[in-house]
Amino acid sequence: MSATALLSYALTVPDIEPGRRFYSIFGLIPAKCGNALALRCEGRDQDQVLLIEGAKKRLNHLRFGADDPGIAAIRSRMRERDVVETGATAPEFEGGLWLADPDGNPVNIRNQSAQPWRSAPEFRINQPGHYRRFERGCGPRYQVRPTRLGHVLLFTPRLDEMVAFYRDIVGLRLSDTVPGIIAFMHLPCGGDHHVLALLQDAQAGFHHASFEVESPDEMGLGAQAVLEAGYGNGWGMGRHVIGSNLFHYLRDPWMSLAEYFCDIDQIPGDGSWRAQAHEPRDALYRWGPPVPDDFARNFEVS
What are phi and psi of 125, to 5 degrees? Predict the structure, then answer.
């Protein structure tokens, strides 16, 4: 038994208000959480992002969901490997099981299930031999609202140790890897190709979080709104090889990234998926604009 959901992530930031503005334009809905700010996806009764003030921007914690037997199993594996239980990073975040990964990132496991997210109408396109849409395909401009948090990517100087921790303690499974560069991990119950990705770097840090939208059109509309508000373009639009998802990244106020995605590979929950080792040239994308020089830069390095 293991984690069954990625519930949310929390960032410590020097000032919450720039985060409120950015994530609101990005399409999330803010709500108070004590001295922290919680942000949710429209139609989903679950915190997805938590922001709390501190001296320097950094990952405050990752939060996973599990049932009681799953939490007991994680505690048992912690004892077997001498992983100690820690405390909550702030009073607002009390509850559940707390531990730290090999990079020192706090991890919170709670007895919570992933809450349902809203569905979307089928995205129909006209293709040669498949002309099925007989109304205008280009609709009006509107505020894009992501449906859910999909995954988080962290920088790490301990790639193999981090993979082992999230596999052997938290219970995630390896989806695919570029050996020595990046690893992608999914929930044992299946679902998205990855809920956690780990990128080799000289220092630990937060790279990006990714949110699902309904269609490539929403990726374009959302990115256009963020860029018109004065934020930096991260990279996109393009398609990844590993996970297959379409992507567009935007720079947040702290120079980390928020990603819109759609059309990600789904992994069955029966354990039949086999991880593959990919070539370095496929680590980032199949097509898209040239990779910016700073895309893989860890801006948390002082």
Answer: -125, 155
Please state, in angstroms and rounded to a whole number, the distance separating the CA atoms of residues 214 and 119.
8
In terms of residue numbers, what domain contains 106?
5-113+146-282
pLDDT tens track for 129-169: 999 999 999 989 999 999 999 999 999 999 999 999 999 99
Position 19, amino acid: G
- Rounded mean pLDDT, 215-240: 98
Residue 135 lies in a domain: no
Tokens 């374009």, residue located? 220
Alpha-carbon gap, residue 260 to 218, rounded angstroms: 9
The answer to whether 2 and 173 are in contact (CB under 8 A) is: no
Mean pLDDT of the chain: 97
Contact, 194 vs 238, CB < 8 A?
A: no
Determine, yes or no, domain membership for 295.
Answer: no
Instruction: Give the number of other CB atoms < 10 A from CB of residue 128.
Output: 5
Give residue 293's pLDDT band: very low, low, confident or very high (50, 70, 90): very high
Question: pLDDT of 88-108, one tens digit each?
Answer: 999 999 999 999 999 999 999
CATH for 15: 3.10.180.10
Q: Is residue 291 part of a domain?
A: no
Q: CA 272, CA 268: separation in Å to the nearest integer?
A: 7
154 token code pair:
């962290």
| Structure tokens given for 167 | 């596999």
What CA–CA distance (Å, rounded) separates 175 from 184?
5
Distance CA 58, CA 81 (A): 27
15 falls within a domain: yes
